[in-house]
Amino acid sequence: MEFSLINTQIQKFDGDMVVVFANSKIDFADDNVQQLIKLNHFESKPGSTLLLSLVKGFKAKQVLVVGLGELPNSAKNYIKALTSASAILNSTQAKSAMIEQVEIEGFDQGWRHRMSARVLKDSGYKVQQVGVQGQDDPLENIAIQSTYNDAHELLQGRSIASGMRLTRHLGDLPPNICTPTYLAQTAQELANEFNLDCEVLEEADMRKLGMGSLLSVSKGSIEAPKLISLSYRGDGDSKPIVLVGKGVTFDSGGISLKPGAGMDEMKYDMCGAASVLGAMRAIAEIKPKINLTIVVPAVENMPAHNASKPGDVVTSMSGQTIEILNTDAEGRLILCDALTYVEKFNPEVVIDAATLTGAVIVALGKHHCGLMANDQELADDLLTAGKVSLDSAWQLPLDDEYDELLKSNFADMGNIGGREAGTVTAACFLARYTKKYRWAHLDIAGTAWVSGAKKGATGRPVPLLTQYILDQV
Predict the structure, then answer these.
(1) CA 102/CA 1 separation, integer angstroms
(2) Does residue 33 fall inside a structural domain?
(3) Which of 124, 146, 168 is the last residue of a domain?
């Protein structure tokens, strides 16, 4: 799918389809479209559509009218409109289309170019069934009407969508395919494609480093754990931004076994890993002047005769001891050793993304990622990136009072803090390993995938992470 900018009247586009937008005013300059809208009793609700064929005065074969809702045109309604337009474009097998220019409140043309390319490319993603060869997008060329001829925002949008597609694909793969070894192979493929530096630590390497916490999670599985690092260098010797992604490729809960209903969705417990790999792909395509490293601790959490038990005490790479009170609170056990390991990169900032707690869904639902940080400036920058990318986060507290809940009689800390404030106490646990650098934590358990008839990975928070990185250039 190729994108371009075009400064011409929508009526003169000689292709398969043009997309025009209607808001509550429904006042088109083109009389033919105006009459057809009235004739069909079209209502301009956000995302509503009306497909017209062979409209007088238009060279394109079809005109797609898409609702934007109330004036002024909002960013969220524009995304709904683009998503609806993409569904129609793909269902009609159109090969070329033109998107009408429209003003969006609070955003410039560059943002609209980036968002249009991102949404239209990502909306074409289809879950790929095992054994069925994937199909290319039917849309080959999309022209976006604009008086602004700098196309770098189009590249950014397309690249972010490519990263989201990788993230969604990895999340949607069955857990017998997407294992820790598969994630390591994916990282190596990205390294080969984009000339990145890749290193994969094996179990013996992690044992030498003293990663007793991470290895306590993986030891019940026949799948070998991996610690994956991938680095893009676009700015000499400057300190890198480091992203850490939780990579539990299947989470049974271990000895603290999860209920059977819905357990299949625990293949999505590696969406943190998938999202940082997706962000790396986007950045490697865009090629900004910045240094980026991602680190993925990848394991499978299974019950077995040798699996960790509630009551076990393990020693993390940092030397701190942990009483395992619940083996289903395993994400923090692999992340804490990864967060100690990243000190070797002398990071500018560290951001982890993890499907860490069900409690974040109770607190924030499926709309916002949970955000906690030991540095308010970093938190503010991430919140801003979320607003610009429409991949939003909401900040939760990280106070000493919550940290007190992790006390243990038998170790430096327990791995859970009780029923109260589960999302916050999980972040407090991680914060004990991040005192040497600026750090933020994104709990994406509510946003990384959806359930039900449309079950699948969402690609979040690739847009947020990528926007934050680009904002630092």
Answers:
(1) 22
(2) yes
(3) 146
Among 258, 309, 366, 436, which one carries the catalytic annotation? 258
List pLDDT tens digits, range 50-79: 999 999 999 999 999 999 999 899 999 999
b/e per residue, 270-290, with b = 16+ CB within 10 A?
bbbbbbbbbbbbbbbbbebeb
Nearest Cα residue to 217 out of 90, 121, 302: 302
Q: What is the end-to-end Cα distance of the chain in Å, rounded?
A: 27
The DSSP string of 385-445 is HHHHHT--EEE----HHHHGGG--SSSSEES---STTHHHHHHHHHHTT-TTS-EEEEE-T
Q: Residue 299 has which token pair? A: 């394991």
Q: Which of 146, 178, 210 is the last residue of a domain?
A: 146
Residue 118 falls in the annotated catalytic set? no
291-348 per-position pLDDT tens digit: 999 999 999 999 999 999 999 999 999 999 999 999 999 999 999 999 999 999 999 9
Identify residue 47 by its one-letter amino acid code. Answer: G
pTM of the model: 0.96
Structural domain of residue 359, as residue ranges?
160-471
Main-chain phi, psi angles of 435, to 5 degrees: -75, -10
Options 118, 246, 281, 332, the catalytic residue: 332
Contact between residue 42 and residue 77 where contact means Cβ atoms under 8 Å apart: no
Which stretches does DSSP call E strand in 31-158?
A: 49-53, 62-69, 96-99, 141-145
Segment-wise mean pLDDT, segments of 10 residues, the chain, 473 residues = 93 95 73 84 92 93 94 94 94 93 94 96 86 73 91 95 98 98 98 98 98 98 98 96 98 97 97 98 98 98 98 98 98 98 98 98 97 98 98 97 97 96 98 98 98 95 98 97
CATH number at residue 56: 3.40.220.10
Omega of the bond leading into 461 within 30 degrees of 0 (cis): yes
Rounded CA gap, 415 and 300, in Å? 18
Catalytic residue flag (residue 258): yes
CA pair distance 104, 111, nearest whole angstrom: 9
d(CA 250, CA 301): 6
Per the CB < 8 A criterion, the answer to whether 341 and 295 are in contact is yes
Q: Are residues 119 and 186 in the same domain?
A: no
